[in-house]
Amino acid sequence: MARVNYEELRKTIASLCAGEDDTIALMASVVCELHHSDDRFDWTGFYRVTGPEMLKIGPYQGGHGCLKIPFSRGVCGAAARLKTTQLVPDVEAFEGHIACASSTRSELVLPVFNGAGDVIAVLDIDSDQPDAFSQEDAQALEAILASVFSR
Ligand code: SME
């Protein structure tokens, strides 16, 4: 049972991303390391802000994800719209949840901010395990995302 060590993950991502400022390259590196760090993470990916109130899929690992999500829909739309992390222990209880996979039971979605404080994307992690995520996961990932995208 692989369980993420967030300090090790942070160091690995910092090393991989050092000197890089291409957002897609950074997203691809973060998703790859994150996805394979923990057995709870069954789908890991970014949705990018591509226009007013619109998210479109970015680098991800796992089965295919839906291509676009308006800010008005889903857990991802809520994270982008409210600019706050969405920790969902039971996706069935989240009104408007978008099920890209029927196996998903819980979800963690974090807004991604650039250095100016604008939301440029959301990071979506889905788990087939119920209530898989904690505030520790949320806080650690918020710090990692800030270190990569908000610098
Ligand atoms: N579950 C997300 C949609 C993205 S798929 O899970 C990859 C949502 O409700 O926004």
Describe this structure in words.
- With about 150 residues, the chain is of the alpha+beta class.
- It has a single domain, classed as GAF domain (Beta-Lactamase, 2-Layer Sandwich).
- It is about 30% helix and about 25% strand.
- It contains four helices and six strands.
- It has helices at about 5-15, 25-35, 75-80, 135-150; strands at about 45-50, 55-60, 70, 85-90, 105-115, 120-125.
- The chain has a six-stranded antiparallel β-sheet, sandwiched between helices.
- Helix 1 packs antiparallel against helix 2 (about 25-35) and helix 1 (about 5-15) packs parallel to helix 4.
- The termini are far apart.
- The mean pLDDT is about 95.
- Methionine sulfoxide (SME) binds near residues 74, 75, 97 and 107.
Give the uncertain stretches in residue-range form. Answer: none
What average pLDDT do the residues reach? 97
CATH A-level architecture: 2-Layer Sandwich
Strand adjacency order, main sheet? 3-2-1-6-5-4
Shape: globular
Q: CATH class, anyone?
A: Alpha Beta
Indicate the proportion of strand residues. 25-35%
- Count of beta strands: 6
Q: What is the makeup of the main sheet?
A: 6 strands, antiparallel
Count of domains: 1
Classify the helix fraction into a percent range: 25-40%
CATH fold name, please?
Beta-Lactamase
Secondary-structure content class: alpha+beta
Small-molecule binders? methionine sulfoxide
How many individual helices? 4
CATH homologous superfamily annotation = GAF domain
Multimer state: single chain
Computed over alpha carbons, the radius of gyration is 14 Å
Order of helices and strands: HHEEEHEEEH
